DUF72 domain-containing protein (Flagellimonas pelagia), 299 residues
Amino acid sequence: MKFGKVDHPERIDFIIPKDHPDTPVVLSKYRSGGKTNVYVGCAKWNRQDLKNFYPRGTKDELQYYSSQFNCIELNATFYRIFPSDTYEKWYDKTPEGFKFFPKMTNEVSHLRRLNEQVYPVVDRYLEVTSLLKEKLGTIFLQMHNNFDPKNWDRVVRFVEYWPKEFPLAMEFRHTDWFNDETVAQELYHLLEENQITNVLVDTAGRRDLMHMRLTNNEAFIRYVGANHPSDYPRLQDWVNRLSTWKTLGLGNIHFFVHQNLELESPLLSAHLIKQLNPALGSYLHIPATLNGPQKGLFG
């Protein structure tokens, strides 16, 4: 994942900003002391990207991946809408409790940019994606970097069209969505009123996307490591913040680990899980790669 990559990550201030003032207000609506659902995973399961993760002789990558992690951020669906039998195979290969968090096809977000022609595409996408049944997590829509607030009417129409039975998260990347306070407040209100999750992106070169504004009872976090020793203390900071949010009422944590070069993603994910379990009282399986024979890039 090259988005937000910098040449000298050691020069970046990775301290997580303070919460947006409205985030505790939002979370207070959900404070009940109930269970917090925690899902942590990578963005891909293919062997080519996840180096040193699969044991020698592994025949089915998804089957093994889903034995180690409880979810996947499904980036493959950004590039194409797969045939229905592909989704059925994914469902059958994964264990009970596993969840897919698929990315909306780029035909909607990048090629047609939420214009009036996207709705038949959305319907087709949801028709096959729904075959994942109870293993379908939140679908996320990532807009192009140059999709700016001039397109506000398109966003409103899309949100109004979206069928509410499918949980949705939206990721906006143009700086004007967050740097203009009036625009930001209108966007957050729209998402909050429609129970749509505001995606947080933690990457070196775009610290403005760490707006720390939650809009519902879900923290959908896309963490991009820099292939640098700082990746690990950054994750500890997230453990601390998520623990605070749980105390405030957060019920759903969906955390996906990327890297500029995906070599270390399983190791980073396993490290995060090991820290999250005692902090949140969760019992996520710690992937075997954490104590496996391969050593990571940083020790």
User: Anything to note?
Assistant: Confidence is low (pLDDT under 50) at residues 290-299. The chain has one domain: 9-291.
